[in-house]
Amino acid sequence: AAAAAGATATAAAAASADAASSQPPPLCDQCLFDEDTEHAATHRCLDCDDVFCGRMAAAHKRSKVSRGHQVLTLAELQANPQLAISTVLCREHTEPFKFFDVVCARPVCHSCTVLEHAGHKCTGLEQAARDARTKATQLSDKAKEHAKQLVDAEKELQNVLAQLTANYETAVKEVNSSFDELEAGVIQKKQDLLKELDGKHK
Question: 20 to 30 A Cα–Cα from 166, which one of 59, 102, 152, 159?
Fold first, then answer.
């Protein structure tokens, strides 16, 4: 019974795979404008999100408007779905960001590097991200060190204040003790003088 169930499951999976593979591929978006010519799509533009046949994909990459677009085969996208994640485009040139302008501190596309940002020092986006992470780590380490220094300085200040308070209390005690001794000596001297006067008077 178990063998029969396993065979049934295998057959069902094979049938599902056959059904998926039997589905017709998407048609080229550009060829759809020509009712007499329809070709299966083999490529996709990640910037336009359109699909093309091989001929239209080549024409799309040659066009001045879409020359900088990222066009991949459907097989590549199926093998690596992460490649299909939408790309952020430059507002001025509708091209994907490729570089990071170090001078302006902003991402730029290829057209930006030869037009508005020509002559600026640029680096790749991945390198810029690594540099940013490194700088953030350095700033975090410095902040932690400064925080430790502040805590240490506060502890030292508390110690100084405690020592000053102790010194003040000691000084007050010494002053009171000195004046108490002085007062006692004056009173004793007074009594001695009075006794001496009484003795002479008698």
Answer: 152
In angstroms, the CA 147 to CA 154 distance is: 11
Confidence of residue 146 (pLDDT cuts 50, 70, 90): very high
Strand partners, 96: 89
Instruction: Tell me the pTM.
Output: 0.38
Q: How many CA atoms lie within 13 Å of 105's alpha carbon, on the beta-carbon side?
A: 2
Q: How many CB atoms lie within 10 A of CB 123?
A: 14
Between these two residues, 6 and 35, which has the higher pLDDT value?
35
CA dist., res. 42 & res. 28, Å (int) = 8
Give the CA distances from residue 15 to residues 2, 18, 108, 139, 183, in Å, rounded to whole numbers and listed in that order.
20, 5, 49, 58, 115
The C-alpha atoms of residue 98 and residue 133 are separated, in whole angstroms, by 18
As beta bridge partners, residue 107 has: 100
For 54-102, what is each residue's pLDDT tens digit?
A: 888 898 888 877 777 888 888 888 888 776 665 677 888 878 888 889 8
Phi/psi for 121 (5° steps) reads: -75, 125
d(CA 81, CA 115): 33
Sheet hosting strand 99-101, strand order edge to edge: 106-108, 99-101, 122-124
pLDDT band (50, 70, 90) for residue 7: very low
C-alpha dihedral (60, 61, 65, 69), degrees to nearest 10: 110
